Automatic annotation (TrEMBL):
Comp. bias regions, Basic and acidic residues: 218-228
Stored Pfam families: HTH_24
Segments traversing the membrane: none
Cross-referenced InterPro entries: ArsR-like_HTH (IPR011991), RecG_C_sf (IPR038475), WH-like_DNA-bd_sf (IPR036388), WH_DNA-bd_sf (IPR036390)
Record's compositionally biased regions (Low complexity): 246-262
Chain residue ranges for the region called Disordered: 214-264
SUPFAM superfamilies: Winged helix' DNA-binding domain
Organism: Bifidobacterium samirii
Name this protein carries in UniProt: Transcriptional regulator
Length: 336
């Protein structure tokens, strides 16, 4: 089978029955065409891939993709893998990466089920709360999609067929099922999908390791549900060794020579402060429990460190104790 026969079998070359002319269709151009040909036929076609986690006014990194869909799928996927944390899970005796499967499904949907002549650019956004995708769509159903009632419709059947044949997509509807299947082990939460003139998908991301929130709670809500805690206020009184750690060895309640007091050296404490600041930078909504699990120390020690950082004006709490987050303050605010 030569190249032309392959193009015909993939429905990328055929006859226009209105004019009788033969030639390549739009699917062929978008799948395999050169960039200059694509820009002439679909001048508005592009995909913006943006990482915006630190520089919220602009972006941390950006990729603008205007190449054909086969190359675009590889470029977007590799870019996303550089910035998204990877975790593994077992399926039987096989190890799989939920991250890689989620990226594949989001990118394939972004590429296959879009309107190529629309001026609305497709977007793949990596933000602090997770992955967002947007693309122009001719929607049959308007509103949020539910896995139990979703009826998939192929919007670009020739492109979808080509992607299935080369192994970059599965049967119609499998993408949504895979997102629901792998989002929970990846982030602890379900994805959200909305169809309309713009199709939007959202998959949460858990940026740091630690225990998953329980019973559907968000990460910052977890703090308020610990039965071992006396209260939910980050300013609450913690272990009596606070005074010693905060350079007050004259406190009469503290005996620095008593091994039961679990005291630590200045170097140990400074290292832990630095590590905790990095965790807050990566996840401003991190809880005491999550930080303790990651640093492999007790919750009382974590609370002590939070309190010290707050007293020294390295961090401050924004919002409520249950639904707020931590903010790292600039050096000009620090207490010497």
């Amino acid at each position: 089978m030569d190249d032309m026969e392959l193009m015909r079998s993939a429905d990328l070359y055929g006859v226009n029955y209105d004019t009788g002319e033969e030639g390549f269709n739009l699917a062929a151009v978008m799948l395999l065409g050169k960039d200059e040909v694509i820009s002439r036929i679909a001048s508005a076609y592009r995909t913006d891939v943006i990482v915006r986690r630190e520089n919220l006014d602009r972006y941390d990194d950006r990729l603008i993709v205007t190449t054909n869909l086969i190359e675009a799928q590889a470029q977007i996927s590799e870019f996303a893998k550089r910035y998204l944390p990877d975790r593994f899970m077992l399926e039987g005796d096989q190890t799989v990466s939920p991250r890689d499967i989620i990226i594949r499904e989001l990118v394939s949907n972004l590429i296959i089920h879009r309107e190529f002549v629309s001026p609305y650019p497709a977007k793949f956004l990596i933000l602090n709360d997770g992955i967002h995708t947007e693309n122009a769509s001719k929607a049959i159903f308007q509103g949020q999609l539910a896995i139990t009632s979703f009826k998939p419709v192929s919007k670009n059947p020739f492109i979808a067929k080509f992607f299935r044949n080369i192994g970059l997509a599965d049967e119609l509807g499998s993408g949504m099922r895979n997102l629901y299947k792998y989002s929970k082990p990846y982030s602890g939460k379900d994805p959200m999908l909305d169809d309309g003139d713009v199709f939007e998908a959202f998959v949460p991301v858990r940026w740091v390791e630690g225990n998953l929130p329980q019973d559907g709670m968000t990460a910052h809500e977890e703090t308020g549900h610990d039965p071992n805690e006396q209260g939910n206020n980050p300013d609450e009184t913690v272990n009596k060794t606070d005074a010693w750690v905060n350079n007050d060895p004259d406190n009469p309640n503290i005996d620095p020579n008593d091994p039961n007091n679990d005291l630590e050296t200045v170097d140990d404490f400074a290292t832990r402060e630095y590590m905790l600041l990095r965790l807050i930078h990566e996840n401003p909504a991190i809880t005491y429990r999550q930080a303790a699990a990651i640093l492999k120390i007790s919750e009382s020690t974590v609370k002590r460190t939070f309190r010290a950082l707050r007293n020294a004006k390295f961090i401050e709490r924004q919002g409520s104790s249950r639904r707020g987050s931590w903010c790292i303050l600039p050096p000009s605010k620090h207490v010497e």
